[in-house]
Amino acid sequence: MQLNAPLDMHLHLRDGEMLTRIAKYSAETFSGAIIMPNLVPPVTTKEEVIAYRQRIIQAIGGKTFIPYMTLFFHPSFNKTFLNALRHDITAIKLYPAGITTNSEEGVNGFDIEELRPVLEAMSELEIPLCVHGETNGFVMDREAEFVHIYEKLATAFPKLKIIMEHITTKESVEALDRFDNLYATITLHHLLITLDDVAGGMLQPHLFCKPIAKRPEDREALLNVALRAHPKVMFGSDSAPHPKHAKESCGCAAGIFTAPIALQLLTELFEQHDSLHTLQAFISDNARHIYNIKATPKKIILEKKPFQIPPDYEGVVPMFANKTITYSIKRVIHL
Ligand code: DOR
Ligand code: ZN
Questions:
Q1: Is 180 a catalytic residue?
Q2: 2-297: CATH topology
Q3: Candidate from 38, 130, 164, 242 with most ligand 1 atoms within 8 A of CB, to mutate
Q4: What global pTM score does this model have?
Q5: Is 147 in contact with 182 (CB distance < 8 Å)?
Q6: Does 100 sit in the ligand 1 pocket, CB within 6 Å?
């Protein structure tokens, strides 16, 4: 099996020592990734985006990998400010305040009129809007409740590309086809697990993330669009490393680390569903069309050979640690 220029359209690379430790796991096998801006403090200025990009480039040490940078949405942005950094970013990420890890500086209340000037400017400058779409309602209902906000946004700003990040519900899948300007990323873990895997038996902290994995019928709806590589969906791992002690503790941090195993597990999954022929579109081609980006050429050769997932990658426990899966990375060809 061969994949060309895999792209991860939703990735947390962190900063400092964690960035140095984990960046290579994405840079080795992916051609590029949309880099999430939820650092502490969040990435909100041109100077911060440029400096963070430099730190990423340094951390990946010569590997061919493009970090597509994002800015952390703030209602105080204006068109002059955005115009000045238009070429330093690929998108802007909007978080409702407090909804997930490091999102305290996000948007409060979600008043579309308050956000209108920024969203209009983004629309005119053709800057896509990536959204963490959850309300602060009951945890299983948060994403479904947010769909009406997606609908309002999509209607009010028809030229704005809106990416529903890491969708987990059939309601979000259904919204995709109702609005031309709605797109979505789908993670690996939400294609593989449901809430049962997280909390149905003994609690599994390494499967705990936001949005939480949902019901079997939601997973089915996600699988349905991913496996046929619906042109409006693309892969975004939401790989979100936390140190082992922050996961295996009382008050477990949300986030699942999948970067080093994503391609192998996606290949296994698509093969199980007789869909290997659509994986290239899901892992790269759709994203390139949606974002209108060119990806650095890179060829990943996978082989059907058992691979035992390590217990940890430099202190970060991956999803399915110690499990044996059916595909391995054989070779990476830099073109
Ligand atoms: O589980 C999550 N972890 N969901 C997010 O939205 C953020 C992420 C993180 O940064 O750890
Ligand atoms: Zn994320």
A1: no
A2: TIM Barrel (3.20.20)
A3: 38
A4: 0.98
A5: no
A6: yes
Length, in residues, of the chain: 335
CA-wise closest residue to 255 among 268, 269, 267, 237: 237
Residues 329, 335: Cα–Cα separation, whole Å: 17
Enumerate residues 6+ apart whose C-beta is below 8 A from 100. 38, 132, 134, 210, 254
| Residue having the nearest C-alpha atom to atom 2 of ligand 1 | 255
Q: Where are the domains of the chain?
A: 2-297
Q: How many CA atoms lie within 13 A of 42 on its CB side?
A: 22
- State the SS3 of the chain: CEEECCEEEEECCCCHHHHHHHHHHHHHHCCEEEECCCCCCCCCCHHHHHHHHHHHHHHHCCCCCEEEEEEECCCCCCHHHHHHHHHHCCEEEECECCCCCCCCCCECCCCHHHHHHHHHHHHHHCCCEEECCCCCCCCCCHHHHHHHHHHHHHHHCCCCCEEECCCCCHHHHHHHCCCCCEEEEECCHHHHCCHHHHHHCCCCHHHCCCCCCCCHHHHHHHHHHHHCCCCCEEECCCECCCCHHHHCCCCCCCCEECHHHHHHHHHHHHHHCCCHHHHHHHHHHHHHHHHCCCCCCEEEEEEEEEEECCCCECCECECCCCCEEEEEEEEEEEC
- CA 27, CA 109: separation in Å to the nearest integer? 37
Residue 223 has pLDDT above 90, yes or no: yes
* 99 Cα nearest atom in ligand 1: 6
Atom of ligand 1 nearest to the CA of 166: 6
Token couple for 227: 């496996």
Per residue in 137-196, pLDDT tens?
999 999 999 999 999 999 999 999 999 999 999 999 999 999 999 999 999 999 999 999
Q: Which single residue is written with the structure tokens 């305040």?
A: 97
